Amino acid sequence: MDLVPLAERLLGIRSTADRPDELRRALDFVLDVVGPGFTVERFEAGGKPSALVYAGGRRPHFRVIFNAHLDVVPGADDQFLPRRDGDRLIGRGTQDMKLSALVLASVFRDMAARLPYPIGLQLVTDEEVGGRHGTLHQLEQGVTGSFVVIGEHSALRVVNESKGLITARLHAVGRAAHGAYPWLGDNALLKLMRAVDGVLTAYPVATAEAWRTTVNVARVSSGNQALNQVPADGTAWLDIRFPPQDSDFAGRTCDEIAAHLTALCPPGVTAAVDHAEPPHRADPAGVDVLALQRAARAQGYSGELLRKHGAADSRFFFQRGMDAVIFGVGGDGQHGADEYADLTTVEPYRRALTAFLEGIAEREGIAKRVAEPDGIAEAEGVEPEGIANP
């Protein structure tokens, strides 16, 4: 519970995507919590800062990476004034995921220098807007690891699978005319409405939780600004989430997905895909997944496996053959007005992470580290690990 006062200060930092100074302030705050004695690599892409922290002077292949994002979605002013209500800490970013980030930072601080294998702390500030300038950018700069723990909320359950993410546009082309003479024109918005109906017929709007593809029609617009004019163009933006089992999207290229969506539309409407990112999956029988489950159960939690409908930075690790899971504190109200973290889960979470790290050395028989001349500590008698194959 010593982290709660720190969390309240961090939660007061309005680290939204449109406030670059606050993103840097949040990043520096957590680096200060970690303290001196570690190597800090700083990165920046797209105006979004991030950092990678580790012991020693040369970046290794990490046995474990702790990944945390410090950005939050926008909220009302009072949401950045955190408050306690019994065992709840209420405010923007409590559950998603500043409190978990502080736990990860504190466990790293206490464990990294004494573990007989290298671990890294990855702090990013753009997860809520796609993660491409934080986690993805660091991976593109050569950061690797065998197993990744992402501190998104999970109430000490282990999220080993999450849906893929596609952002697509349906674009309709018509012919302009005076609104009083619609037979002289070709209304692009009417075409667009039929196109959206075609897509939603194939992928109906979910009325209850289901592990299947969902399509959210996020925005519809037209260049037409006059009420008395037949629109000559229209665009609908789609947010598509899909599980690995959906062969319409899984393993397909952007062009192939665009062709599939276009086939669901009437003539005059075509689809374009801006991003297509695969689902994420970590082997449920993997030794690290099982060990993390055991660590959660030892703290009185189920440690059960979960599927996550939303995409997370775990997808970037999966694309590069690295096993990643989501494992964090409890709470509710993510992105809502009453978002809160369950403070009763904080200490069990910290103990579970500590036990998980200690168990790796015991399980793999890594006895000690020998200091090398360049200041890097290597595990004696242990060959460097390759990247885990999910």
From TrEMBL:
Domain Peptidase M20 dimerisation, first and last residues per copy: 161-247
Domain of life where this protein originates: Bacteria
SUPFAM superfamilies noted in UniProt: Bacterial exopeptidase dimerisation domain, Zn-dependent exopeptidases
Known EC number: 3.5.1.18
GO molecular function terms attached to this record: acetylornithine deacetylase activity; metal ion binding; succinyl-diaminopimelate desuccinylase activity
GO biological process, one term: L-arginine biosynthetic process
Spans annotated as Disordered: 371-390
Keyword terms: Hydrolase, Metal-binding
UniProt-listed PANTHER family: ACETYLORNITHINE DEACETYLASE, N-ACETYL-L-CITRULLINE DEACETYLASE
Record's protein name: Succinyl-diaminopimelate desuccinylase
Species this protein is from: Saccharothrix ecbatanensis
